[in-house]
Design goal:
Shape: elongated
Structural class: alpha+beta
Number of helices: 18
Radius of gyration: 31 Å
Helix content: 55-70%
Mean pLDDT: 79
Number of domains: 3
Distance between the termini: 40 Å
């Protein structure tokens, strides 16, 4: 529960493969076992709880402020939510975080504490601990009003609430049914309602303080305050009453500024939604709609539909892009640097390539091609002709040998591993093992034809590599025979 989840959405997006997740688990246990991993099930469930807590406080704080005296029906649930927020302060100090800029998961206790102190610690402490302290140790006289005002700072956490709402949509089957447009509209409605509720409550407080009388009908008085706030937020005017004092002028000015901000926010979101009609995410959605129509038209079975959708999800990660068009806009040097950056670590682990010159390595890297295999796909089959070598960029594969009766699992290969290198040197060599993808795998292939063409100017190196390949083949045959 406290370590990285094997099935979490964030785990799959950031770590990509089961091997990377296993390495992250080992790192977590060895270096920071006392910390909560940001991609753990426990942390994801707690974030969902805090999203509900924040939403509840955004509703209860202004209502409680508008009600004169102590309304226990509001006071008790608000105090309970404040106590949960106090627990969140402690949990935040022992929870790692994902640095989006560097794409690294930070679990160091000191760095986590510094990060939290720089972000939301003081807001959480003042808006949560102070009201909780008032509940247990203070009376409700005017001397404790400062603690009441401190809880208003909780509105600064609305960014965290919206961020949690976005993450909940990624993992919730119900919310994922909504399109990007509908979900943005839903968030705008939530923000506007929260802003309207807060301005209404403070306008009600002003009216009660101005008349120094408790309204006979609270809800009727609150409805009157709603109408006055709408005047300001919709920029219709300064309200239902004339401005007679400084406090009223200050309140109207604040409401008008909030109204301008909300109006600009709504216009900006509307323009952004129109603009993103051609953006990456919407292109992906349009592509998926076309794909669904294609599947329906061809009447493909459910198993095939799931595999096709799984392929697109893994390849594009919900963001459609045309790789060929992007690479065509770059210079040749940049293209080579990108390919070398991606494949250099894979090439360096191959024994065949240890003593090759840099120019030859670059020629080999340029010949490598990306290929995706889904769970259960047979990458190579025993007895088949070996035409290329494979490099595992991400994912896990299982290697089986066939003794004529049943397949025997020899080993598993994961991120950074390779297989099939003998086929680059030996002509007409048959595969002696079957390799199957046991999860979605991103592989790079190097064909024998491209490799032979690249090493043609280096006959001596080619001769040495052939000797090495023969030795490697003999060792492999011995292993396969012993397994049988």
């Amino acid at each position: 529960m406290l370590t990285v989840s094997d099935t979490g959405i964030n785990s799959k997006l950031v770590l990509r493969s089961s091997a990377a997740i296993r390495e992250e688990k080992i790192r977590h246990f060895n270096e920071s076992y006392y910390m909560i991993h940001p991609f753990s099930n426990a942390r994801e469930r707690w974030d969902e709880v805090m999203m509900c807590v924040f939403f509840g406080l955004f509703i209860l704080i202004p209502i409680k402020a508008a009600m004169s005296g102590i309304a226990w029906s509001i006071h008790v649930p608000k105090a309970s939510l404040d106590i949960i927020c106090c627990c969140d302060i402690f949990i935040s100090f022992v929870s790692g975080y994902h640095n989006v800029i560097t794409n690294k998961i930070i679990l160091d206790r000191y760095k986590v504490a510094i990060y939290y102190l720089k972000t939301y610690f003081f807001i959480d402490f003042i808006s949560s601990v102070a009201p909780t302290f008032m509940v247990f140790f203070c009376d409700y006289s005017d001397t404790c009003k400062i603690f009441v005002y401190a809880s208003y700072l909780k509105i600064l956490r609305i960014g965290s609430f919206l961020h949690s709402l976005d993450r909940l949509r990624d993992v919730s089957g119900f919310l994922r049914q909504f399109s990007v447009y509908n979900f943005k509209i839903f968030k705008m409605v939530v923000i506007c309602l929260i802003g309207f509720l807060w301005t209404t409550s403070f306008y009600h407080i002003y009216r009660v303080n101005k008349t120094n009388t408790k309204p006979l009908n609270f809800f009727k008085s609150l409805l009157y305050s709603c109408l006055g706030s709408l005047y300001n937020l919709l920029l219709i005017g300064y309200g239902l009453e004339k401005i007679n004092d400084t406090d009223h002028m200050f309140y109207v000015s604040i409401c008008l500024m909030i109204g301008v901000v909300l109006e600009v926010f709504i216009y900006a979101q509307a323009l952004h939604m129109l603009h993103t009609n051609l953006s990456v995410s919407n292109k992906y959605q349009n592509l998926m709609k076309q794909l669904q129509e294609f599947i329906r038209y061809k009447q493909l079975p459910d198993c095939m539909r799931k595999r096709i959708l799984q392929f697109f999800d893994f390849k594009f990660e919900k963001s459609y892009f045309k790789e060929s068009e992007i690479l065509d806009t770059l210079s040749e040097n940049l293209k080579q640097d990108i390919v070398l950056c991606i494949c250099q670590n894979l090439i360096e682990k191959v024994e065949f390539f240890h003593e090759l010159p840099a120019t030859l390595l670059m020629r080999i890297v340029k010949c490598m091609k990306s290929e995706i295999f889904l769970r259960g796909d047979v990458i190579v089959k025993a007895g088949g002709a070996g035409e290329c070598m494979y490099f595992i960029s991400s994912g896990t594969t299982a290697v089986y040998t066939d003794n004529g009766k049943e397949a025997t699992n020899v080993c598993h290969l994961s991120d950074g591993c390779h297989f099939g290198e003998v086929s680059l040197i030996m002509d007409n060599e048959k595969r002696i093992a079957t390799v199957v993808a046991i999860e979605c795998c991103d592989l790079y292939t190097l064909s024998r034809k491209d490799f032979q063409k690249a090493v043609e100017p280096y006959p001596e190196l080619k001769h040495n590599m052939k000797k090495l390949a023969e030795k490697r083949l003999q060792k492999t045959m011995v292993v396969a025979t012993s397994v049988k």
